[in-house]
Design brief:
Distance between the termini: 20 Å
Structural class: mainly alpha
Mean pLDDT: 75
Number of helices: 3
Low-confidence stretches: 17-24
Number of strands: 0
Radius of gyration: 16 Å
Strand content: under 5%
Shape: elongated
Length: 98
């Protein structure tokens, strides 16, 4: 989740948009491991997440063609475009990881 926030912040800074406020308080949220046990994701984890999200974005592109309502279609296409921009940024950040 921290990676997504970093990517969103970078994308918003790049495009001049305001980023969403970070949510730090999740009522009823319980972690299964202590923060000390959690590790930063490695390059392999990031690359795997990028591949999964890329496939999901392609699938969403295929599904959006089935939407008949122009407003809903336009809204979903804008959201998919944002995801694709974040994926592009994630790929460039991933190449800088060890």
């Amino acid at each position: 989740m921290a990676q997504v926030i970093v990517l969103q912040t970078a994308l918003h800074a790049r495009s001049g948009l305001q980023s969403h406020p970070q949510m730090t308080d999740f009522p009823g949220y319980v972690t299964t491991t202590s923060p000390a046990d959690q590790q930063e994701p490695g390059k392999e984890d990031v690359d795997r997440a990028i591949l999964l999200l890329d496939g999901a974005a392609r699938q969403a592109r295929a599904l959006v063609k089935q939407i008949n309502d122009p407003t809903s279609r336009e809204n979903l296409e804008a959201q998919i475009a944002t995801i694709e921009q974040l994926l592009h940024l994630a790929r460039s950040m991933s190449s800088k990881l060890e």
